[in-house]
Fold these 2 entries.
Entry 1:
Amino acid sequence: MTVQRSRPLIVGNWKMNLDEPAARTLVGALLTILPFDRVDAAVAPSFPCLRAVLDAVTGSPLAVAAQNMHSEAKGAFTGEVAPPVLFNMGVRFVIIGHSERRALFGENDAMVSRKVVAARRHGLAPIVCVGENEAQRDAGQTCDVVVGQVRAALADGALESPGDLVVAYEPVWAIGTGRTPDPAEVTGAHAAIREALTERFGTPGIEVRILYGGSVTPANVPVLLQAPEVDGALVGGASLDPGSFALIAAAAAAC
Ligand code: PEP
């Protein structure tokens, strides 16, 4: 897989859905219908399904992402998963700081920052999720919130270059709700994130892919991905249906 902004990146976050047979079936379908000549694509199964999905995608352009990981390489962290284990299995990306982890599992900016550094150290491409909640949106704080989260996630000086970092703008109020921001809101948030990335990394910050996520469907993806600085999508619900995910990928390729 190439990492470059000229190709959109579409990532399917399966969350805590699908058992192993269902994961295998979905991947089998995706391998035949995703437009790999025009998009980079990855799927993020739950941990127990990683082995089956990695085996199924062997030799194909479909990459595999983890939905989370710990920041330490090993140790007494019951129930956690270590970055080098994921890397050695063949996992390529890891989603970090998803709003569900922040809201439901107490993940904070400091933990996100440690995980980003750990992902890079162990060869995984971090997909860092940022986004405002509804109250912050209503208060006109979207750009301040996302810029603050990006700065905090990338605060560690050990991170000298962006490498294959990906940022996903996911308004919390849009995730799983069927509601989406209007194009001006997407444009504003992505521009603010881009500015934070170039402020942090200089010119290489221009190469970081910024994905939009939150209730993406085949119907709304052309509008959402048309905004400047949108380099692909992080897709939850619609990624569980191969036809919908393929339509989203095809629309992204056409944007
Ligand atoms: C997500 O949880 O990352 C997500 C984008 O979910 P959905 O597409 O279902 O809103």
Note: The pocket of phosphoenolpyruvate is lined by residues 13, 170, 175-176, 213-216, 234-238 (CB under 6 Å).
Entry 2:
Amino acid sequence: MAIVTPLETPPGVRRRLRLASPATLEPIGEIELPTIEEVHAAIQAARKAQPAWAALPVKERARYMTKALKVLLERQDEFIQVLQRETGKPRTEALEMDIFAACDALQFYAKRSARFLRPERKRIHGVVGLSKQLRIVYRPLGVVGVISPWNGPFILSINPTIQALMAGNSVVLKPSSATPYSGKLVGDLFEAAGLPQGVLTVLLGDADTGAALMEAGVDKISFTGSVATGRKIAMACAERLIPCTLELGGKDPMVVLADADLDRAAGGAVAGAFMNAGQYCCGTERIYVVEAVADEFTRRVVERASKLRQAAGGEFDVGAMIWPRQLEIAEEHVADAVAKGAKVLVGGRRNPTLKGLYYEPTVLTNVTHDMLVMREETFGPILPIMRVRDEEEAIRLANDTVYGLAANVWTRNKRRGLGVAQRINSGSVCVNDMAMTYGVPEAPFGGWKNSGIGQVNGEIGLRGYCHIQPILIDRFGGKQTANKYPYSFQKDAGMQKFIRFLWGTRLGRWLSMRRLPL
Ligand code: NAD
């Protein structure tokens, strides 16, 4: 992810950012930031384009997704190159995290949205059902602002964009200033797919651009990023009374039980902790392993972690970190842990052989819950392993956090895994896999506690970009309400008798729960 340096510009001239590769520290480009007026103009254009877009049948909208998929398949090498240049991540990670997941999302929502957004007829229970019919329709909200982070710069920009578009909204996307070129790919892709003008605008910018987007009057914000920024977004949305989904940070635990397949668990731990150089929102940030298998599990983790390769090009396993501050956080967390008694088994320092921002894959033991590395999101390639007495202690410590994004549990007994999963207070849990629920659209994805508000993906996520509008139709053309007045004590007495019958007798209670035909 690119190192960002703001450039000096005279007042009245657009601000500029210089970007450098975190892998080589070489410059990779400059971007010019939009003015506040330009942000407003983008929202206005999106608002103008939205009604015609919403008027298209869902299947027509889906055709643009299918075209975009075709373009992505054809141009994937070019996209991977942009992603790698800007992020310093291994080719495999650009392919798996960004390209594979984007192809799946384009296809999934192209095929499923019509079903998820189809107007529904609902049966109504009890006496109200005698006179009313209920329809539910899914209306677009208008203009959706998508604000995305740098760590999955293409997928975390395109996935909410696809869903907001399929629901009939227009979108203004503001990718992270650290990964503007990867965010811009989303605009390029849909432009090549022929998306009508104004339906999607990509604004390259920084935090101020994001704040201006909020100010400019969107109808929903779909935000993915840090807890600190998430709070600001929540406050700005509260002031404007607009909905938001907030996909925020985590401190995801992994629990290894005594009956786990230790080799697979060790592989899962290493993949979960070091993928994307640990800059993965659902990355494994702390491990609790029961005493009986702790030594053997740790040995296998160390063996695997020490074989990981870092490089600025070619074939390698662990890439660069975004910018100097992220690397400093990793250093601070390791230094704090060591000062409080932790042992470094692998890594524990910047990679001295590389020029770029590389921190060595690091495994720590002898860790405790008074260390930063066990309490605050590190977002780096650091894996602390803590021995626990038993399953109960593992669950208690896994829940001892202000976060709750994802978690994973390892055991040979699926039923036991399911039981433990349901006692961990996190947005999602995986059994015998690193956290990967975000990639499964059937799974509603969202954080618990400080890790976020709302859920994205699949049916729930898609409908989150809609106003879900119930329409109640009177079967008798409004006769009953038209004859409501005058009130009288006699009518009240009749009503009270009816209430006593409905909920005070067995037959009444049975009738009050009957659902009438549509
Ligand atoms: P960040 O909060 O610094 O920035 C996220 C986006 O918000 C960027 O586009 C940024 O320019 C913009 N922004 C910053 N300040 C703003 C403001 N005041 N108003 C409007 N927009 C503003 O986060 P980051 O450093 O880019 O991303 C890393 C964080 O994201 C980590 O905490 C990670 O866990 C989290 N994350 C969460 C998920 C998830 O799905 N829950 C996924 C990926 C990343």
Note: The mean pLDDT is 97.
